[in-house]
Amino acid sequence: MGKGGEKGGESGEPEAQIRFYTWEEIQKHNLRTDKWLVIERKVYNITKWAYRHPGGHRVISHCAGEDATDAFQAFHINPTLVKKFLKPLLIGELAPGEPSHDRDKNSQLVEDFRTLRKTAEEMNLFRASPLFFSLYLGHIIAMEVLAWLMVSYFGTGWITTLILAFILTTSQAQAGWLQHDFGHLSVFKKSSWNHIVHKFVIGHLKGASANWWNHRHFQHHAKPNIFQKDPDVNMLHIFVLGDTQPVEYGKKKLKYLPYNHQHEYFFLIFPPLLIPVYFQIQIISTMIKRRFWADLAWAISYYMRYFITYIPFYGVLGSLFLLTFVRFLESHWFVWVTQMNHIPMEIDCEKHRDWLSSQLAATCNIEQSFFNDWFTGHLNFQIEHHLFPTMPRHNFWKVKPLVKSLCAKYGVHYEEKPLGKAFVDIIGSLKKSGDLWLDAYLHK
């Protein structure tokens, strides 16, 4: 049970009784119907409110029974404003003798990371460059216009259509990186402005759903590479990942597919089908089931614009084929870029690490170059992005030396590799996991 206490006001009058809780008690409240969390030593009961959480109920529920201070700071660009909404949920504080961090986390590491964040704020690294994002949006729109001009002036021959498809693919991929910026609230100072432009970019420029993306992607950031919490490692029994899942599948004699060949059938399933099949089905069904009507309207505006533009040249079936081909190409681009930072890293069950250690265990960087920055949408700075998701991407290179220094101080592994090796490591990791599965399947 929590311990009661009173705090006196300046006038000497006793204020409302404050309850104090131990970590042992708080950690019991991590159930679906009973959720508490801690932010800056204050204890909040989020059980009922979680389903009204703008970022989705799952991302905040993943932090139940834990110190969520660093996650709270990472996801909100105006924590002071958000705290006003937390006041009705406040039920007490950590007992005076309790540490600020749960589960024997390194308190000095945690404090040093928070100091690093304050340093980044003082360096204005969370301030976006309007010119950067304006030019970025401009080059996407320019590619859309160029594609239309090509088919208008050169017709619908095979060579023109192939070049057109590559231009549209590039536009779609870059729009994907741009919507990622607005989705993370890293462009404007006001959340509402980011949300509005996010819906425009992901909806009107890509035909997808902002709410679907938010609810899925924020979980990935809160608990990267954690089974049952990160949707990106839920492979629907098609792949087994990491070192522990393959052994568990093998021991249980689970063989939905021949996982010892997953590094081979990866090329046939993951890159070509993720966006044109799986994501499209998931996006449409989510918008309808959850009644995201505004997102649906934005998505419809994309398809109307696309078909109005290309049906006069290709007809209905030709336009559908072109769109499917573009999605097919984009899917390859997206999969290789997004998986190179995570699949080769640790993938396991929840270990309740501190924010820095959990993000570094699940992410790695790719060497910087102008091409790598552009090709990956600055996701080659995946470590810095995961530590500071609301930081504008053009500032990642500035905070990188500070992060590396902190990691070196505490012996936290900071991994960086060339782009080509990162691609190869995806296949190597899948092969390693497949071999672990086969060994457990046959011998354990």
Give me the secondary-structure topology.
Blueprint: E1 3-5, E2 18-21, H1 23-26, E3 30-31, E4 34-39, E5 42-45, H2 57-61, H3 69-75, H4 79-86, E6 90-94, H5 107-122, H6 130-154, H7 158-183, H8 191-204, H9 210-222, H10 244-251, H11 262-289, H12 293-339, H13 355-362, E7 365-366, H14 370-376, H15 382-387, H16 396-410, E8 416-417, H17 419-443
Parallel strand pairs: 2-6, 7-8
Antiparallel strand pairs: 1-2, 3-4, 4-5, 5-6
Brief digest:
The protein has 444 residues and is an alpha/beta fold. 59% of the residues lie in helices and 6% in strands.
Can you walk me through this structure?
It is a single chain. The protein is of the alpha/beta class. 59% of the residues lie in helices and 6% in strands. The strands form two sheets. It has a six-stranded mixed sheet with strand order 1-2-6-5-4-3. Strands 7-8 form a two-stranded parallel ribbon. The longest helix has 47 residues, at 293-339. The radius of gyration is 24 Å and the shape is globular.
